[in-house]
């Protein structure tokens, strides 16, 4: 899953792809590099970020989704928690909802079911503006898995088929470094949820805290964690760096064949 942020304030590439031309070029490049999904976001969810208005978020993402859908034969994901944005994006050509709030907003599950969308349910403790202030868990893996199990059941009750659901433990979203590393160590335990697992670690602060490196110096650390995730059962890797991640995943997959 290639990341395409069309926001002016993304933590990694804010403003670079805010216009349709650069955004489309970026999507074409990621598709050529091996991305199976392009994940488009119009609201930054970095730690400390604040929500944007629904209309502004749609203004940012809908033209980009329409342009990519018209040009590329690739799955498009909308990274949003707002049901109105979900509906507009799905109408414009997206087929997946990637929601850091796990479709908990009123009407979100119904929107996904109505449009027969794929969904990615992520765990987050708190909100982006507060999530890193003092995250606490008694057992981070058990609590995250329990939350995701509850949301899977809620989706099923809303008419979303089990085969349409992916789960994401939310590395770095309301977690300390130790929480995030604990989830990485325990990824295999999420197989019990019987949904594909997605992991996003690309350029995140967890890598910076380990290596003491800035956002644009975290590629190699991210590849290491992506490889670990795949070796422990992750089926989707969400990344800014598609080509090197595809290479790393291909090598891990080759080594794991027959196991």
Description:
With 259 residues, the protein is α/β, with parallel strands linked by helices. The protein has a single domain (2-253), classed as Alpha-Beta Barrel (TIM Barrel). The chain is 43% helix and 13% strand. The chain has a 6-stranded parallel sheet, covered by helices on one side. Strands 7-8 form a two-stranded parallel sheet. The model has no long low-confidence stretch (mean pLDDT 93).
Rg: 17 Å
Indicate the low-confidence ranges by residue numbers: none
Question: Under the CATH scheme, which class?
Answer: Alpha Beta
The name of the CATH superfamily reads: Dihydropteroate synthase-like
Spatial arrangement of strands, main beta sheet: 1-2-3-4-5-6
Approximate shape: globular
Could you say what the CATH topology is called?
A: TIM Barrel
Q: Helix and strand layout, with pairings?
A:
Layout: E1 2-5, H1 20-33, E2 37-41, H2 54-71, E3 75-79, H3 83-92, E4 96-99, H4 108-114, E5 118-122, H5 140-157, E6 165-168, H6 177-185, E7 198-200, H7 205-211, H8 219-231, E8 236-238, H9 242-256
Parallel strand pairs: 1-2, 2-3, 3-4, 4-5, 5-6, 7-8
Which key features would you list for this structure?
two-stranded parallel sheet; 259 residues; single chain; TIM Barrel; alpha/beta; six-stranded parallel β-sheet
Short description:
The chain is an alpha/beta fold. α2 runs parallel beside α3.
């Amino acid at each position: 899953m290639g990341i395409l942020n069309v926001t002016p304030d993304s933590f990694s590439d804010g403003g670079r792809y805010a216009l349709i031309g650069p955004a489309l070029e970026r999507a074409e490049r990621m598709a050529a590099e091996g991305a199976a999904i392009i994940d488009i976001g119009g609201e930054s969810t970095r730690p400390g970020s604040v929500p944007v208005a629904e209309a502004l978020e749609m203004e940012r993402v809908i033209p980009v989704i329409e342009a990519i859908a018209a040009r590329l034969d690739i799955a498009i994901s909308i990274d949003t928690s707002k049901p109105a944005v979900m509906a507009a994006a799905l109408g414009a050509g997206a087929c997946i909802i990637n929601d850091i709030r796990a479709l908990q907003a009123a009407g979100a599950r119904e929107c996904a079911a109505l449009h027969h969308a794929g969904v990615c349910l992520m765990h987050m403790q708190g909100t982006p503006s507060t999530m890193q202030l003092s995250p606490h868990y008694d057992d981070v893996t058990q609590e995250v898995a329990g939350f995701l199990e509850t949301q899977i059941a809620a989706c099923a009750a809303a008419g979303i088929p089990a085969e349409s659901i992916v789960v994401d433990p939310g590395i770095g979203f309301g977690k300390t470094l130790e929480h995030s590393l604990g989830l990485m160590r325990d990824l295999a335990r999420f197989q019990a949820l019987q949904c594909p697992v997605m992991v996003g670690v690309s350029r995140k602060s967890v890598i910076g805290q380990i290596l003491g490196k800035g956002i644009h110096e975290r590629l190699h650390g991210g590849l290491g964690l992506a490889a670990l995730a795949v070796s422990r059962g992750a089926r989707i890797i969400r990344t800014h760096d598609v080509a090197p991640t595809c290479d790393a995943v291909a090598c891990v997959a080759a080594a794991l064949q027959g196991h």
